[in-house]
Amino acid sequence: MKHSINCLIVDDDPMYAIVASSILSTLTSGLLRTAPCGRAGLAALTRESRDTDLVFLDLNMPDLDGLAFMRAAHEVGYAGNIVISSGESPAVLRSAEAMGRMLGISILGVLTKPLTMEGVAEMLAKSEMTRGPSAKLGGLAGKDCELTPYYQPQYDLATLRIAGFESLIRLTSKGGRIHGPADLFSSVNGLEDLTAVSLEIAIKVVRDFRTWPVGRTRADVSINFDASVLERPHVIADLQQAVTDLSADPNTICIEVTEKSLPKDPSRLVEALTRLRMFGFKLSLDDYGMGASSFQLLRLCPFSEIKVDRSIIEACPHDRVTRKFLHAVAGLARDLELVSVAEGVENQEELSEVRAAGMDRVQGFLFSRPVPSQAVAELMSDPEAYPA
């Protein structure tokens, strides 16, 4: 079955445009447009940004290069995905990808030239997963949809047994259809909504966790919080009260903190995270190494865990600099007596790199996809769930 993804090809090489168009027309029935230069591509994107799901972007173009295109796309509010497709060196591609993500753009990945059918198909599949009928949801949970936590297990690399779970939120519509987090957060309006949703998710997760057979294994559960939410004066007290009301052990709950930039007044976040640790919660620094503030946060706040992003794990098998970075993070975690977690391991090659670096925990599709709460007990009791 073909995808129904609207694509824009931005490249000054006419032969590339012909090849890309031919491959995409085979794989998707959506609208397909080409732009012979960066400025034409930006004009098309600005004119029809809502009708563009995926941009295939060259970097080296004479009038407006790919880097300038990404910055301009961010400024006009493009909310779709971008695939960087270029013949530049791995170092340049890595930096361009990092820059796009720093801008907040959804970079699905990099395809080197010449294109292959398999590579394009993979990017279309990723794009399909990030799409969602946000405009059709009609609002947040409690209206047309319900917040539904799913759980991806984390495995201890020494024993290959489940050591914890990361909670990942989904939306379940009245008809039973499952939507991803993009649908939820695209309909969140401002910090007030984000705070309310984050606390509701936390309560649902703690309730689920108390029904699982984790006492023997001492597995923990991670809940994601944006730092801007944790800085709000009442949130820490609300979290503490929820755990107390549900008779949960805070030592089994890990708060994953995501922070794209250090706040103007870091003392608020430091105070909030210190209070959480004093109460007994674990703290994880999510996406370590992906933002400029990661080291500052690690230095200032009492974290118990460092988590490495999927994009770093994916790059390790073929990029020496990234591989060295992973080893350095694992070593830093050992020196600071922190748990290190590798996120998004999808194949044996990536698992080998994670093992070689000496990471403590691993999660990813190689081991298990996220599962609903009712499937957790079965997952924990199934000896076949742990790959060698």
TrEMBL record:
This is EAL domain-containing response regulator. Residues 6-128 form the Response regulatory domain. CDD domains: EAL. Keywords: Phosphoprotein. It comes from Neorhizobium turbinariae. It holds the Pfam family EAL. The lineage of its organism: Bacteria, Pseudomonadati, Pseudomonadota, Alphaproteobacteria, Hyphomicrobiales. It comes from the Bacteria. Residues 129-384 form the EAL domain. The modification 4-aspartylphosphate is found at D58. SMART domains: EAL, REC. Gene3D superfamilies: 3.40.50.2300, EAL domain. The keyword Phosphoprotein applies.
